[in-house]
């Protein structure tokens, strides 16, 4: 196979891509480099881009202990995993109903779910805050019973599902439209009920789209800071992203310590992406060759 001919346009494109890649990787590389250095005795004196006088793992140990990451990782798992499961399940059910059956409001229903993504979440904070505050809920999983949904991890889960289901429904509906209806008809002729058609025929065929959405949704839910910070009023209930806020001092900040905490916090999303990379890329390219 002949290599592509070198043209001015290709040189400009490659130069642009290299520049963007360096711009994205430089902050990450700087954070990793700084996380292994002493701050006061090294970085603060010699600068961020200087050669280190010594390397250490103390920043990682201190970040884990001071940020109480073992507990906040558990809080994050309690929020993210159920939210991810129910988001994908409910979105696939809605997409199935809107694409495989013809009823009067199926298109309007799909548009309603999609339009929900256009509303900034911060705009709805005050109404949601008041609604959760007035909703009674005995929080049996917390040390303190607030008497309402406000201040509970269940509230954060419900909000994540409500906001993310629209985007997932839009993506899954577009993918389910490419599945031939003859498959469902053949299953119905063989006596399969509607739930059996959904779980045994349609849902397995949407695995690439679900893998791509699962990767994206896990990253978005895991990295959320806003809802965990404003709805969970107890510090020991907050997710992992709030651990960095604990590491900020009132008068001085150890940026190397924060860099170490950031690397630790980012590892789960990196692991999930690497594990599902093949399915994620396949999901992104779905329909690209369709006429």
Features:
single chain, mainly alpha, MetI-like fold, 14 helices
Overview of the molecule:
This protein is mainly α and 291 residues long. The protein has a domain at 70-241: Orthogonal Bundle (MetI-like fold). It contains 14 helices and no strands. It has helices at 8-35, 39-46, 58-66, 69-100, 106-115, 125-133, 153-176, 181-189, 194-205, 207-223, 226-231, 243-247, 255-275, 277-284. It is globular. Residues 287-291 have low confidence and may be disordered.
Reconstruct the topology from this structure.
Layout: H1 8-35, H2 39-46, H3 58-66, H4 69-100, H5 106-115, H6 125-133, H7 153-176, H8 181-189, H9 194-205, H10 207-223, H11 226-231, H12 243-247, H13 255-275, H14 277-284
Helix pairs in contact: 1-13, 3-13, 4-5, 4-7, 4-10, 5-7, 7-10, 8-9, 10-14
